[in-house]
Hints:
Active site: 396
Helix content: 25-40%
Number of strands: 19
Structural class: alpha/beta
Family: Belongs to the arginine deiminase family.
Bound molecules: citrulline
InterPro entries: Arg_deiminase
GO molecular function: arginine deiminase activity
Amino acid sequence: MYPGIHNYSEIGKLNKVLLHRIGPEVEGLVPDNFARLLFDDIPYLKVAQQEHDRFAEVLRENGVEVVYYVDETAKALQEQSVKEEFLNKMLDESDLFSEGVREAIYDYLIAMPAKQMVEKIIAGVKKDDIPKVETKSLADFITSAYPFYMDPMPNLYFTRDPGACVGNGLNVHHMSTATRRRECLLLRYMFMHNKDFAPEGSQLWYDYDDPFSIEGGDVLVLNSETVAIGLSQRTSAAGIERFAENILHKSTFKRVLVLDIPKSRAFMHLDTVFTMVDYDKFTIHPEIEGPLRLFEITLGMDGKPHFESLTDSLQNILKKVLKLPAVDLIRCGGNDPMAAQREQWNDGSNTLCIAPGTVVTYERNYVTNDLLDKKGIKVLTIPSAELSRGRGGPRCMSCPVNRDDL
Ligand SMILES: NC(=O)NCCC[C@H](N)C(=O)O
């Protein structure tokens, strides 16, 4: 096994994964903030944690090292000066318009040990947490009924999205919505100051300050030459171009395949409708097969990106880039349109492949799971009554850091 960040496929044996154990941040969800915080419902925390623990346990049982956001970020903040810089940057990004509030929150958080500080930032800082705020500006006199000074990060358990490990490097993303942007700062500090996570020499393909949105659910590493990326509700064409230019110039990857998927909440990322489960097998949501447009980005002879609109079918393109005689696209929900819609909504196509032909899925998606099983895929299911309320499945809940090469 190579050390550090090493990810040249979607299906190679998974050695190390970054998760976030769902926590009190989801108890900051109320119907009034659902739309802004990207939820449709409130997970019951106790049960969601049990489900998440089972997810981690299944991974460990299959030889995967599981590391957590809170621990890995805390390791990055051991130096006092780094901890201070991180907190200041976090406060800069937290829409705090009052100087008095900002100072009070800074004093409250910096006094905590690094791990506790990170946990609190993720859970959100409530007005009740800060008993006394000095009035220093007009904004300090203005009060509202909203309970938080700093919003919680209820989406962090979808660790797939704030970043992506590709080859021997990392993307730290610029998220499309303000509510998820601060999640990426945790990852950025992990990259910069936690050498267990990102040893010297790890590359950075995309950075927090890059201006165009790109989210990890859209990034699929097909093999050591090809990265597929969804042009989606969350990932912009300009973000894809910037990522492609960097990775094509500085790595062994030769092409970026762009899948232009419908822009809708149900299909928010490519991995909600398309994932790889074996050398030659994929899950796909039937509703994207028709409208799909595909493009390829390569480097021209002049060293500049070359863009091409592809006319061939997805199946033929996959055969070509994977150098296979045939590929099988397994339809989420089979041929039943209602099962397809229902199971896609509950992330039936969102499989996490942990070795060729072995996937982790939500047990509730029994139609798709059964089909995968019939196709010879080993399906390890996890309970999902509460986790699925956040609209993401096992692939969304995991950021693979290290996989064996194929
Ligand atoms: N890769 C994924 O599709 N992640 C799921 C993210 C769900 C989260 N509630 C969001 O809307 O961002």
